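Researcher: Go.
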Amino acid sequence: MNARMNAAMQEAVRLTRAGQFLEATKIIQSTLRPGMEPGAAADSATHGAEAPIEGEFYVIGAEGPEAAPPELEPQPRPPPGPRANFPGGTAWAGVDLGALNGQWRGFKGPLRPPRPARTPDPLPDGARFITGSYANPAGTRSYKLYVPSGYGGEPLPLVVMLHGCTQDPDDFAAGTRMNELAEKEPCLVLYPAQAQTANGSKCWNWFKATDQERDQGEPSIIAGMTRQVCDTHRIDPDRIYVAGLSAGGAMAVTMGILYPDLYAAVGIHSGLPHGAACDLPSALAAMQKGGASPLGRKGKETTGLLAFPAIVFHGDRDTTVHPGNGDQVIRQCARPASARPAQAGADPQVTVQRGQVPKGHAYTRTIYHQPGGRPIAEHWLIHGAGHAWSGGSSRGSYTDPKGPDASEQMLRFFLEHAKGRSPA
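Model: Structure:
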């Protein structure tokens, strides 16, 4: 796989330098997306489906803010992976093909460019959306911090939100509506910003070996930034959480694994497991077909370190990051051996619920329990959804308003899981 991928990329570079853009485009597209048409993704997403132990069907979101008439519903944005100036994408969930990027500027490829940024939403009276930065020997990153209007200095939860490729804190805040939720369920929301100098498509470098270790690279920056906010604001140390989309989702998994002492739970939307890749070819392979096994880098088993709460969202028509990666994240991060389907004569450990968003997507929600019934993980598979934030607002990029509200469900899950406390 690696040899074929490298050879294809080298040929694409040669054709690009020769001005043969269309030929290079065909090579790149056929290399990056073999067998990944929506139908194939949907079929593969059903692999290993477990028989429901307990199930129900229900409807959520009937009165959601995005419940527009069908003809007025905004269409899902293109996935955070591809950039508009590179046919086939210069950023696939964080893989930046920067060596080719500059030579494709101005090329009118088949991808639709993201919509221009919109005017930021007005803040509620008393709320603040602060700009700051953090630096350590690994580098410097800016951030935005949302402080809700009712904050009076009391210890509140902190939610760290890692954006996807080509996004920024303002865009991600608008699309996820997490700031609006922070007004309803008081918490602070931190949005680290990836620097374009660190990744040409502003993706978090989840696939680089140097960014997969504790107290090194980007994980050290994100953790240090989190601690800095805890120093400047009163944060409940038992209720600090991290979530992300795509490349940000993959980095959120890494943060949860490397810093279980800091983060109480993790939210992953359209992401990949920690250690799924250590270079470009392995990253593309993981994105296309899903991780082969829930192992860390260098083949070291990491299961014993990873029994912490996680909530995963993934569309079963995602052709940028294979839906099988959601299964691997569950197995890796938050599915201890005891959280398995019930066998004959054993107590149920899995609950399966099926639901439907009015005029939107159906979904399957699988809840994994520890012994005694405590939920440790949730996996939301959104049927018919692609690579976009489920239930997000069209005010931001890469959202799918027709899905269940991932932000609302993540925040609900987070607040049920504080370190050292049993869920309510």
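Model: The longest strand covers residues 235-245.
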